[in-house]
Structures are given as structure tokens and as C-alpha cells.
Amino acid sequence: MQHDAHTGHEHTATHEGHHQQHENHQNHAGHHAHHAGPGKASWSMAAKATLHCLTGCAIGEVLGMIIGTALGWGNMPTMILAIILAFFFGYALTLRGILAAGVDFKTAFKVALAADTLSIAVMELIDNGVIALWPGAMDAHLSEALFWIVLAISLAVAFVVTTPVNKWMIGRGKGHAVVHQYH
Questions:
Q1: Nearest one of 17, 3, 50 to 168, comparing CA atoms
Q2: Taking the model in full, what pTM does it have?
Q3: What is the 3-state secondary structure (H, E, C) of the chain?
Q4: What is the pLDDT of residues 110-158, one digit of tens each?
Q5: Tens of pLDDT along 52-78?
């Protein structure tokens, strides 16, 4: 009789433990749904994703312009290099986080492409469009204030335009929403 009572106690404790684990899993799943589920994108989340993208783009843009200028290249080859490096560094920042989660490189690369391609493309289109259209910006040298002021303005405009794009993508379970399952 005492053995039966003890067994019942273990079953109840085990059942309660499983129930608690299930509740924790539901809360955790709800947490991710809040951040990444379709229709659940917040402006804050979109801004963070855009800032992440902007960081990679800015590194690539500046490095491309420095290299192109140092090599004496013209505006178009320098701009092309800056765009290529913006995509490279944008993807690299995302890859770093996904690989840190233990994902293999091939899968991580596919996730980075899915997460960042549209965001980086929009950002680069806006950023380079502002620079190309701003009078004198394409011919400004790295040592001139005009270069840095227009670059800062172009990146700010790109951020403002790209944030709603990221919000729309995250709200549909795409873009940076794809990355959230890996952290």
C-alpha cells in the first residue's frame, strides 16, 4: 500500500514536471511568435533588423570608398566595390550570429541570403541614390566634410526607407524573422 502511494506521488510529480515544461515551452514559443511570427512585427524589431543591416552596409560602403580612392579608381568602379562590400559585410554579420548557434555554413549562408538580401538591396539603392543625386557628393574626397555629411544623410535616409520594408518582411515570417529561430 505504501509502495502504491509512493508511486502515485512520483507520477503526480512527474506529470506536474511535464506540465510545467509544456507551459515553459508554450511561453517560449509565444515569445518567439511575438518577435518573429507572421503579423507580429513591431517597429522596434524592424528598426533593430535595419540597424543590423545598416551596420554591415556602412562598413562595406566606407571600406569600398577608401579602397577605390586609394587605388585611384573612378566613381563607378568605387561605387560598385562599395556595394559589393556592403552586401559582403551585411551577410557576414548575420552569418556570424547564425554560425555561433552551431548551424553548418551552408544552412547559415542560405538563412543569411533569405534574411538580408532584400533589406541590403533596398538600403544600397537608397544610399547610393542619395549620394549619386546630391550635387558634388560623387566627386567629394574622403578628406572633405561634404563626403561624410552626405554619406551620413544617405545612410539615415536608407534606414528610414528600409525599416518599413523589414517590418513588412518580418510580419510575413521572412527577412530577419528567419534568423530568430537560431538564437
A1: 50
A2: 0.74
A3: CHHHHHHHHHHHHHHHHHHHHHHHHHHHHHHHHHHHCCCCCCHHHHHHHHHHHHHHHHHHHHHHHHHHHHCCCCHHHHHHHHHHHHHHHHHHHHHHHHHHCCCCHHHHHHHHHHHHHHHHHHHHHHHHHHHHHCCCCCCCCCCCHHHHHHHHHHHHHHHHHHHHHHHHHHHCCCHHHCHHHHC
A4: 988 988 999 999 999 999 999 999 999 998 988 999 999 999 999 999 9
A5: 889 999 999 999 999 998 999 999 999
